[in-house]
Design brief:
binds flavin-adenine dinucleotide; 19 strands; 6-stranded mixed sheet; 9-stranded mixed sheet; alpha/beta; oxidoreductase; single chain; FAD/NAD-bd_sf; 427 residues; oxidoreductase activity; FAD/NAD(P)-binding domain
Length: 427
């Protein structure tokens, strides 16, 4: 039987108390079986439970074990491609619907935190940092686009402006989004799980779904049990493997690495990020960082296509951190870890239905904290018979990766190398 603990992250080391949940034994019956207890699965399950459905979640390891419990904790609005890119891939009506949803995820997170009193260190304010005028131009265009869709909490920062929120000489300016922000991501997932259970929902941990028996009344099999249900929601994202071959062919797991320093001297912490905003830069292969509630620096970056675990994460991430903050050169690193997100070729999420009763959402390609919360609401709406917003997402094309499963890693790495080079050369 499996017994997979959380990755040895700062988040696991500072997690709120949470019960160990049993593995599934024997057969149960439920309305809806959700596979995966990350934000996608938890958000869907919680929306459904709030609407009176009987829901069981099967989680291969522990609640928040995947990307949801180990990410940068940054609440970033919209999608990994912006609304203008979406408009090119679907019709105007669907693009409008998705544009309206682009800022909903952050609101859902804040509503949940307030409604269920989730202790997860919420802070408002996220900064997009630009290295050059080309990136500033892109941010200005993004601001205009987001404002057109009713999102008004944005402020452009010039060189002096960005120096007031992040102490580094690297950026020419940036954009502040006060409806962005940051959270302790594992504690958000644990809080959502507890909220779901308070409404009668059931979570089985250490219970990987090994097989789906399709049909009018589908059955999800685990090593020691079965779930008979009316509907299945597949929310395994980058960790799903080949459970549904239709989904595995359309996306690629990628790793990204994070380090966390020892707690900083409070004066130094306040000097580096005086407003306690989180920051991500505008490069294709971007750096992202912020302070924790106990004033450690969490710094992430780098992408490993195909999600092989790198051997020495500190050796990869520390130089990036020191490039931004040379004054951290003597600071000790307490935690390093890696986690997988799911990349799609369009970098837009893949949402849909297989047959009549298997629903899925996957592949938000890096920016998933807000999107997964929207996805949960949209999947729950579809299961309640209101599919308009679900259909809008489902209208986005799902492209297979060039090169198939064998060559998708080198092909994509080559593409990323090209974009990274363009960032470095500022062309
Ligand atoms: C290191 C890192 C940093 C990131 N930083 C940010 C950030 O700052 N901001 C942001 O917006 N996004 C960030 N992301 C992306 C974001 O975390 C993800 O997009 C999001 O958490 C995905 O949620 P999910 O529920 O779809 O998948 P996951 O959280 O990965 O959850 C999937 C769950 O399904 C389970 N599972 C898989 N297969 C099975 C099975 N067969 N049976 C049962 N269970 C199964 C897994 O064990 C896992 O717990 C980051 C990602 C990583 C890896």
């Amino acid at each position: 039987m499996t017994n997979t603990p959380h990755a040895p992250s700062y988040y696991a080391g500072s997690a709120n108390p949470s019960p160990a949940r049993p593995a599934l034994q024997g057969e149960i019956e439920t309305d809806i079986c959700v596979i995966g207890a990350g934000y996608t699965g938890l958000s869907t399950a919680l929306h459904l439970a709030e609407n009176g459905f009987k829901v069981a979640i099967l989680e291969a390891a522990k609640v928040g074990w995947g990307a949801s419990g180990r990410n940068g904790g940054q609440i970033v609005n919209s999608y990994s491609r912006d609304i203008d890119a979406i408009e090119k891939q679907t019709n105007k009506r669907n693009a409008e619907l998705m544009a309206h949803m682009a800022f909903e995820g952050g609101r859902i997170i804040r509503e949940r935190i307030a409604k269920y009193d989730i202790q997860c260190d919420l802070k408002d304010g996220g900064v997009f940092a630009a290295f050059n005028e080309k990136q500033m131009g892109h941010l200005r265009a993004q601001k205009a686009l987001w404002e057109k869709h009713g999102h008004t909490q944005l402020e452009m920062l010039d060189h002096a402006g960005i120096r007031k929120v992040v102490k580094t000489e690297r950026y020419v300016g940036g954009m502040l989004d006060m409806s962005g922000g940051h959270i302790h991501p594992l504690n958000l997932a644990l809080g959502e799980a507890a909220a779901f259970e308070s409404l009668g929902g059931v979570i089985y941990e250490q219970s990987p779904a090994t097989r789906i028996e399709r049909g009018a009344s589908p059955v999800v099999h685990t090593e020691q049990g079965r779930v008979r249900c009316k509907f299945i929601v597949v929310a395994g994202n980058a960790y799903l493997g080949n459970l549904l071959p239709e989904l595995a062919a359309k996306a690629m797991p990628c790793g990204t690495q994070v380090l966390t320093t020892e707690p900083l001297d409070p004066e130094l912490a306040a000097e580096l990020l005086p407003q306690d905003y989180c920051v991500e830069d505008c490069n294709y292969l971007l750096d992202y960082y912020r302070l924790t509630s106990d004033k450690r620096m969490i710094y992430g970056g780098g992408v490993v296509y195909g999600a092989r675990d790198p051997e020495d994460i500190e050796r990869i991430i520390r130089p990036k951190m020191l490039k931004t903050f040379p004054m951290l050169k003597d600071v000790k690193v307490d935690y390093t870890w890696t986690g997988n997100f799911l990349l799609t070729l369009s970098r837009l999420p893949q949402v849909g239905r297989i047959g009549d009763n298997i629903y899925y959402s996957q592949g938000c390609s890096g920016h998933g904290v807000t999107y997964t919360h929207v996805a949960g609401r949209v999947l729950a709406e579809a299961l309640r018979g209101q599919a308009e917003r679900f259909d809008a997402f489902a209208s986005l094309p799902h492209f297979p990766f060039p090169g198939g499963r064998l060559f998708r890693v080198p092909f994509t790495a080559l593409g990323a190398f090209y974009y990274d080079l363009r960032d470095k050369l500022n062309i």
